[in-house]
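Lab notebook, page 48
Experiment: co-folding of the full assembly
Goal: obtain a model of how the components sit together before planning crosslinking
Operator: M.T.
Materials (sequences as entered):
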Amino acid sequence: MAYTATLGATRYRFDDLRSLMAKASPRRSGDELAGIAAASEAERVAARYALADLPLQAFLERDLVPYEDDEVTRLIVDTHDVQAFAPVAHMSVGELRDWLLSYEADAAVLTALAPGLTPEMAAAVSKLMRNADLIAVAAKCRVASAFRTTLGRPGTLASRLQPNHPTDDPAGIAAAVLDGLLFGMGDAVIGINPAGDSVADCIGLLELLDELRRRFDIPMQSCVLAHVTTSLKAIERGAPVDLVFQSVAGTEGANLGFGVNLALLREAHEAARALKRGTVGQQCMYFETGQGSALSAGAHHGVDQQTLEARAYAVARAFDPLLVNTVVGFIGPEYLYDARQIVRAGLEDHFCGKLLGLPMGVDVCYTNHAEADQDDMDVLMHLLANAGVNFLIAVPGADDVMLNYQSLSFHDVLGLRHTLGLGPAPEFAQWLARMGLLDGQGRLPPPSAGSAPVRRLLGAAR
Amino acid sequence: MTAGLDPFARLRALTRARIGLGRSGDALPTRALLDFQAAASQARDAVHAAIDLDALRRALAPRACIEVASRAPDRTAYLARPDWGRELGQGMDALDAARGDYDLAFVIADGLSATAAMAHALPLLDATRRRLAGWSIAPMVLARQARVALGDAVAQRLGARMVAVLIGERPGLSVADSLGVYLTWAPRAGHPDALRNCLSNIHAHGLDYERASGLLAALATEARQRRLTGTALKLDVSLPASESR
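Observation: model returned without errors.
Model output:
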């Protein structure tokens, strides 16, 4: 079915829903690379007029990726909650935007709505929203999750401490972990991207982190971000697996590129849940996503990268995750060319994830071949903190020496907390207080070299 | 902090990660802030540096070499359009004129760090050629605005059964001049990356020329015998990328 809109004297025609969605998207290099982007700014706005008038029902009648060909589409269609959808069932995409921004759509209403929205609806409405709209609505969404800490509470900003090392050297990783703990990082997870993918190495790193947790009695969860099959083998061998990680994408073909399907994720979820290692909750899955992964895998079906990213959240939400984050600037300039595109994508991803009911975090990051720098990341982290992001990734000095890209630093996330009056997860904040790291106002001031917490923690790295 | 009191003095030796940087309030101290910017500037300059083909040609003389370019007209287009970087835009006639019966073609490509190609490609090439006595090697190819897969088109036109692309890797903050080598048997358009073998991290603090050339020659020899490259060839020593990214 074709869609049309008239702008001035020009009538624009969009052959199908995929094309309408792609051409309504804010400009980004990945859609241009795929040859599906709007040819002009006028065509882009024309597509938005047509999209604004489109009934939400259209997304239930027409699949962007065919149901027969793709298990992610089947998951989305088969688990759609018609009752939750009812309050917005009569709306167009434009009316949904107006309603989401209204006072009527408060935290409780948005929580109830989440299972009624499909990723395509969330993506569509995001295309009609400015950055400030994406922040305002996401800030109203509340998604809490829990394992040994409780994440997503109002007034908190958690962090993943990412202590990667180019050769997975345990002493080098431990040094980075201890540095991060002195900044109050790690309440979302201490998560290592391993350089290798052997089961034995993975188990060694898991044991290192678990020993550290028990030694200092830290309310935290750890994760080695190996492939899901490696984590399953580690579980079989009795390793201390808190969270099972996997990268996921929005089509069956792109997930195949990651070496996973829904059945394998189900198996992993059940295996991790059976360990019952959580204390304040049992959500034990961790997913990473990022715009462009489906095109990169040659499995995008002519759908724009932002819509496919939202579909990855449908995969994540099927497994009741503790953590989901987009690695927004990692993929490179052929998908997100510059800081403007990275900032926009980070806000879209966070908004769509939250609207769909996910405990959403962001890796605010860039590579050296994109047109972006630390000033741009400062902007995005402040915008996301205002949008109520559950957690941010933090690495020593903003420089990941294993994956060779730049994320936020421990300094950045701590400074953001203090500037905006946000605290770590409550259980973790109590631990920081017990360690003597907090001052009377709950802040974490620079600890002096000879202070008790510094001597205790750094004495551990022997 | 003075060195004697710095509790991180011992820990810094354990990792190249930027730990124990100190704090000015919550932010980086000025020196650490500028150190980061200095490293970032090296990486950015490496990404945007142009490969100096004249210098490479002079260094290779009197051996013949062929200059080619991808379809990407400039650096901006190169970064945004990896598909253009995989297709030949200039130099096709010279390649056709040099067509022959070759065991192996070498391509020196700027990739994402011309700095790496300029620094490490020639010493690695010389060390590798010494180990491949008796091989029929095509004239050297120097490629601008090139991705790895440009080597497939080059080898097809030259009539080479195998191609080794020596290419600058994406600069990080700790290393801006890291070279990678991709070896491909029976290269053709649309060749899947799983059917290549890769050596990466060739730089002053990584894989040295001696070891890299030994591995590359061993890979090429086995590839010629077994008539394949890729995951089935078990000498792959590249650091695997993390599963998470």
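Interpretation: Strands of chain B lie at 65-70, 88-90, 105-109, 140-144, 162-168, 179-185, 196-202.
Next step: discuss with group before ordering constructs.
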